[in-house]
Design a protein that fits this description.
By secondary structure, the chain is of the alpha+beta class. It is about 45% helix and about 25% strand. The protein has six helices and eight strands; from the N terminus they run ααααααββββββββ. It has an eight-stranded antiparallel sheet with strand order 5-4-7-8-1-2-3-6. α2 crosses α4 and α3 packs across α4. The radius of gyration is 30 Å and the shape is extended.
Length: about 260
């Protein structure tokens, strides 16, 4: 079996996206067991989806049972306060009544501050939860976009291998030639040093002509390491170089980190 041709057919992307029939799913599952290279490709596709949706679930959630207990305790505190507001003054006299009243007022004040702090804490937690929900919605949209890419019959996947300056580096380009868009999965690149930035190049080979597609900016701050760039070029290969901050007009070849050919 020609596993390379099978991988490039796009059926594995459809398998991961859940777009195949039951019979086709069984066939792909059997091939995954038989061929390590097919299994590895499926794992890489799954990872590409996971890294875009890695923030989908909030890293920490609010303990709603604790919030409920805090809220349910508020009426009891108010009830105690009301009871103190209506003491039986005739049961006290002189300085003893004053001392007891001062103690009661001090206790009420502390309880009030405690309730106020709890309410502020709940409000803060709710604000944080709303922020995380908003971020999760954005991540969901990114994940949907990536799944749509995998399902598109026009998508082309190009693997970029490490070069002499960094043999262990790797990357992938998901290129939709029809729409002129390329997604760069740069998880396999090391973090660039200060004052440096990765630049992606579209290459034609005869003669060798590089065209800049753009920079992988804010690399350290991007947890997913997936970047969307425009590419309307007739690309025959893709390369990623390390350039001075702001990018270069032409690639620095001794800083070529990854390179991959487009299947002809």
């Amino acid at each position: 079996m020609d596993t390379k041709q099978y991988i490039e057919s796009g059926i594995l992307e459809l398998y991961v996206a859940g777009a195949l029939s039951e019979k086709e799913n069984v066939e792909v599952s059997e091939l995954i067991k038989q061929y390590p290279e097919i299994r590895k490709e499926v794992e890489e596709i799954e990872r590409a989806i996971v890294i875009l949706s890695g923030s989908l679930a909030p890293k920490s959630t609010i303990g709603f049972d604790k919030i409920s207990n805090k809220i349910s305790s508020i009426p009891k505190i108010i009830e105690l306060k009301q009871e103190i507001k209506k003491p039986n003054w005739f049961a006290y006299s002189g300085w003893a009544a004053s001392v007891l009243l001062a103690i009661g007022m001090f206790w009420m004040f502390n309880e009030y501050k405690s309730v106020e702090n709890n309410i502020q804490l709940i409000a803060q937690q709710n604000a944080e939860l709303e922020q995380k929900i908003s971020e999760a919605n954005e991540s969901t949209e990114k994940a949907k976009e990536l799944v749509a890419i995998f399902r598109d019959k026009d998508i082309e996947t190009i693997k970029l291998g490490g070069q002499q300056v960094s043999p262990d580096s790797y990357a992938k380009v998901y290129w939709n030639k029809k729409d002129g868009v390329a997604f760069i999965d740069a998880l396999g690149l090391p973090e660039p040093p200060s004052g440096k930035v990765y630049q992606v190049w579209s290459l034609t080979l005869n003669p060798l002509t590089p065209t800049s597609m753009g920079l992988l900016e804010n690399f350290a701050d991007d947890e997913n390491k997936v970047f969307k760039l425009a590419n309307l070029n007739e690309s025959q290969a893709f390369g990623i170089t390390l350039e001075p901050e702001g990018g270069s007009e032409s690639p620095t070849m001794d800083q070529l980190y990854t390179l991959g050919l487009v299947a002809s």
